[in-house]
């Protein structure tokens, strides 16, 4: 067929006879058998010793094709080995000259499946495949597919659109994987979104594939960073910031200095990576990070855009926020004010740089965001006063109580706290981490006191996936409280259900939590929650699926009617309606 013809067309250019030549010979000859024999002699393997061996093989019924095929395979293996050897020997110019000549000779046969591996191998070892050949490969889907990644890199670096098509599905997959973890049905305070170490995360499939595609090619690395910036701007999705850091550190692990030395964020990211691993910024590393920030020179401010993206990675924010909470507790013990702690101020500086990433990259105005004085002089002292309230309450509980009645836990929240949570992004982020902290300590009183402040927060941060994922994990530590009507009303009616109808993700998180803890919830409350959480017409598949799972579980857990009626309660008159047992 035409496909075959196209495959073997290259043979004629090399003066090798192909099927067409044989057809022509046979059409124009008088003695076909003689002609075939002559064609075989002219085009067979030219070894005198074979003249006698071939008839011998014929006697054993070994087809000539099988013989030629095995000779051919043997030769091809030798040739492939030879090409790889040429690529490593002699002077650089000479070895590449040899390979280029070989490519010139063999390229016309690139469509022959048997020869193709050799041509591909030659191209793979050429640091610069001639432009014309690259164009031919690019124009042919099958050839492009069969190419080694070394050749594809040469094609990609001048074809951003084509490279984008290859990278795009990987980036989609990456975001999906992150979302699957945040919404996973396994809820635990031990294992959460932030549990895997940076090194483990970098072994992920997408990071590894991108690292492989980039190789040592700075141009391709820059393209990927450009894609990540553009997508971050378009979607505000912070997982792209994580990938930005993971990719750089993956190249760092492989010691690809061609790229690491030209990325101005390399040392900063490396230092921050160590902090993320420890989930804490210690004093020594704090100094180092500060040195990088203070060292941004006039005229190089653009690097702040990159640094802010590295700091906007949720894993970085998580580490900075946890460190901030730890510092605040230490300050309470030392009787020191926040403004007197340089370490704390540095953490806030990095938090605001990270939280300001989107605005900075969007506006292209590269300067550090101004720190609001009020955050340091009013908000953080407020948080510290909550820590003090807890200490006082705990101590009071332990004192002998003849003189006084029980001291109630402070139940009101200072108005200033609520206002900060609504109006200041950094305050809100730290406030949310403080709430996660008290939940993890199983401090029910403090949790219920601050919960009302979560209904309205800066840009709805309390309803973001990462916070709800962490909160539901920590709430499993308070699972016994779910039997209490009052606790459930505060948590569900007072917080979750205020947003369920307008935010699909909140609906999903509540259902996840109930799937996990339904057996702890008071039955009457559970029933009303099941109704309140029914999917609407607008609900997506995930919500419907979760609600079905919950309904199935509740069906299984319902006590049977017999159990319910067997123990009539003594205070009430016995029912006159016949019970199923007496029928």
How big a fraction of the residues is strand? under 5%
Biggest β-sheet description: none
Number of domains: 4
Q: How many strands?
A: 0
| CA distance, first residue to last residue | 84 Å
The dominant shape is elongated
Helical element count? 32
Radius of gyration (Å): 35 Å
Instruction: Output the structural class.
Output: mainly alpha
Q: Mean pLDDT across all residues, rounded?
A: 86
Q: Spans with pLDDT under 50 lasting ≥5 residues?
A: 564-570
Short characterization:
This protein has helices at residues 2-13, 19-27, 32-43, 50-59, 64-86, 92-106, 116-124, 131-139, 141-146, 149-156, 160-182, 198-201, 205-214, 218-235, 239-253, 257-260, 266-278, 283-294, 303-312, 314-334, 342-355, 357-363, 373-398, 415-423, 425-440, 444-450, 465-475, 485-493, 504-517, 523-532, 541-557, 561-566. The protein is mostly helical.
Q: How would you describe what is shown here?
A:
One of its GO terms (biological process) is negative regulation of transcription elongation by RNA polymerase II. It holds the Pfam family COBRA1. Residues 554-583 are annotated as: Disordered. With 583 residues, this protein is mainly α. It has helices at 2-13, 19-27, 32-43, 50-59, 64-86, 92-106, 116-124, 131-139, 141-146, 149-156, 160-182, 198-201, 205-214, 218-235, 239-253, 257-260, 266-278, 283-294, 303-312, 314-334, 342-355, 357-363, 373-398, 415-423, 425-440, 444-450, 465-475, 485-493, 504-517, 523-532, 541-557, 561-566. Helix 17 packs across helix 20 and helix 24 (415-423) packs across helix 25 (425-440). The longest helix has 26 residues, at 373-398. It starts with a helix and ends in a 17-residue tail after the last helix. Residues 564-570 have low confidence and may be disordered.
């Amino acid at each position: 067929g035409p496909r075959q013809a196209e495959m073997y067309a290259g043979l004629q250019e090399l003066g090798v006879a192909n099927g067409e030549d044989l057809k022509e010979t046979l059409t124009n000859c008088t003695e076909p058998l003689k002609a075939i024999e002559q064609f075989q002699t002219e085009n067979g393997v030219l070894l005198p010793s074979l003249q006698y061996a071939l008839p011998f093989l014929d006697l054993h019924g070994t087809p000539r094709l099988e013989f030629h095929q095995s000779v051919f395979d043997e030769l091809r293996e030798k040739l492939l080995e030879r090409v790889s050897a040429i690529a490593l020997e002699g002077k650089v110019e000479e070895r590449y000259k040899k390979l280029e000549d070989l490519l010139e000779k063999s390229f016309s046969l690139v469509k022959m499946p048997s020869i193709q591996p050799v041509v591909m191998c030659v191209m793979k070892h050429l640091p610069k495949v001639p432009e014309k050949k690259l164009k031919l490969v690019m124009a042919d889907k099958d050839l492009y597919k069969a190419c080694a990644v070394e050749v594809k890199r040469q094609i990609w670096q001048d074809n951003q659109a084509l490279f984008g098509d290859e990278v795009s599905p990987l980036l989609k997959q990456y975001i999906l994987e992150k979302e699957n973890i945040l919404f996973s049905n396994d809820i635990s305070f031990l294992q959460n979104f932030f549990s895997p170490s940076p090194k483990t995360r970098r072994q992920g499939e997408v990071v590894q594939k991108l690292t492989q595609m980039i190789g040592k090619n700075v141009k391709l690395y820059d393209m990927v960073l450009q894609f990540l910036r553009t997508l971050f701007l378009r979607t505000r999705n912070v997982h792209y910031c994580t990938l930005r850091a993971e990719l750089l550190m993956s190249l760092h692990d492989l010691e690809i200095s061609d790229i690491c030395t030209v990325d101005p964020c390399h040392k900063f990211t490396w230092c921050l990576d160590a902090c993320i691993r420890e989930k804490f910024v210690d004093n020594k590393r704090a100094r180092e990070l500060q040195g990088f920030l203070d060292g941004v020179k006039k005229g190089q401010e653009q690097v702040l855009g990159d640094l802010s993206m590295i700091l906007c990675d949720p894993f970085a924010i998580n580490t900075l926020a946890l460190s901030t909470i730890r510092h605040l507790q230490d300050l309470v013990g030392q009787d020191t004010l926040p403004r007197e702690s340089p370490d704390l101020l540095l953490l806030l500086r990095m938090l605001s740089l990270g939280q300001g990433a989107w605005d900075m990259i969007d506006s292209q105005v590269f300067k550090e965001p101004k720190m609001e004085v009020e955050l340091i002089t009013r908000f953080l002292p407020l948080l510290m006063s909550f820590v003090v309230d807890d200490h006082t309450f705990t101590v009071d509980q332990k004192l002998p109580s003849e003189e006084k009645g029980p001291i109630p836990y402070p139940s009101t929240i200072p108005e200033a706290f609520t206002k900060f949570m609504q109006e200041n992004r950094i305050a809100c982020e730290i406030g949310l981490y403080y709430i996660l902290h008290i939940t993890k300590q199983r401090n029910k009183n403090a949790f219920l006191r601050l919960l009302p402040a979560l209904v309205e927060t800066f840009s709805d941060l309390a309803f973001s996936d990462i916070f709800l994922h962490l909160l539901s994990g920590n709430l499993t530590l308070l699972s016994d409280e779910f039997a209490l009507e009052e606790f459930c009303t505060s948590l569900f009616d007072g917080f979750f259900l205020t947003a369920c109808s307008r935010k699909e993700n909140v609906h999903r998180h509540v259902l996840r939590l109930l799937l996990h803890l339904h057996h702890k919830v008071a039955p009457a409350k559970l029933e009303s929650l099941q109704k309140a959480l029914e999917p609407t017409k607008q609900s997506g598949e995930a919500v419907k699926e979760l609600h079905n799972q919950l309904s199935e579980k509740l069906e299984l857990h319902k006590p049977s009617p017999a159990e319910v009626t067997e123990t009539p309660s003594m205070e009430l008159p016995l029912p006159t309606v016949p019970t199923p047992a007496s029928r």
